[in-house]
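fyi for ur records
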Amino acid sequence: MTIRPAKREDAHHAARLLYDALHDVANQLTGEDSEEAVLAALEAYFAAEDGRLSYKQTLVKELDERPVGLVVAYGGDQAAELDRPILARLRSMKQNPDLQLDKEADLDEYYIDTLSVSPEYGGRGIGTSLIRAAEERASAYGYAKIAMAVVTDNTKAHSLYLKLGYQTDKNIMINGHVYYHMVKHLG
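which gave:
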């Protein structure tokens, strides 16, 4: 099992992983309703050079010569710039130049936007290893803390993140749902 930077060629597998992790947020970010259309838009976002869901912000766990897990993470200070391509698409689709995305990341943190493991590979520590890889990347980039959001009813994930040293510092709203904003200070 290898963790490596994502490649554009991972887009097809990555789109499914993103969709499985993001749920209704995937519909919000793509402006699409059908699963097929959401997956196509996620694949395009992932293959693009820019944007928060680009392969450039992603590490993948490879097994059997394919991505079976991914973590999308970036500096909170980069979030506004990384949201530009998504906002441009959505503003055009919705014909609403004032449309905004929910603020998820604080400026001073490295933010785990999305963590996903293929269901058939669950329970093998892949998610934990991807979080650790994101933490290493955050430290290498000079961030003193890393954060993520977990929906408040996902008690299993919340418990795991607590065990990994994350603490809830506030609640945030994403697409009309309450999430715990969880932070870990890096050594």
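The first helix runs from residue 11 to 22. thats all i got for now
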